[in-house]
Amino acid sequence: MSEEVINTQELGEKIVQVLKTIYDPEIPVDIYELGLIYDVFVNEVRDVKILMTLTSPNCPVAETLPVEVEEKVKSLNAVKDAIVEITFDPPWTQDLMSEEAKLELGML
């Protein structure tokens, strides 16, 4: 049996849907709309790397949020492995939030 060729863009979209189910506990907006996800990399062998940030280095969920992201992404059948990398470069600002998130928080 030959290994199935996967559509990395399609898998990326599924990953984004999963990310939209994870919420920052302090802000009632998902981490994707909040702008905490900087990049999602998917390769042909279904390894996923997520580059994300937190609202601040002292964020109370700094220990648990990346683990939750990794576990939820790994729960997708099409994902072989997932790694979450945290960066503070560039630092998160409210400008990274989607219009939807700003509307939700009454900022528009």
TrEMBL record:
**Parts of the chain that traverse the membrane:** none
Classify the source by domain of life. Bacteria
Per the database record, which ranges form the MIP18 family-like domain? 13-85
> Which Gene3D superfamilies does UniProt cross-reference here?
Fe-S cluster assembly (FSCA)
Q: Which InterPro entries match?
A: Fe-S_Maturation_MIP18, FSCA_dom_sf, MIP18-like
* Pfam families named in the record: FeS_assembly_P (PF01883)
The protein's name:
DUF59 domain-containing protein
**Species the sequence originates in:** Maribacter luteus
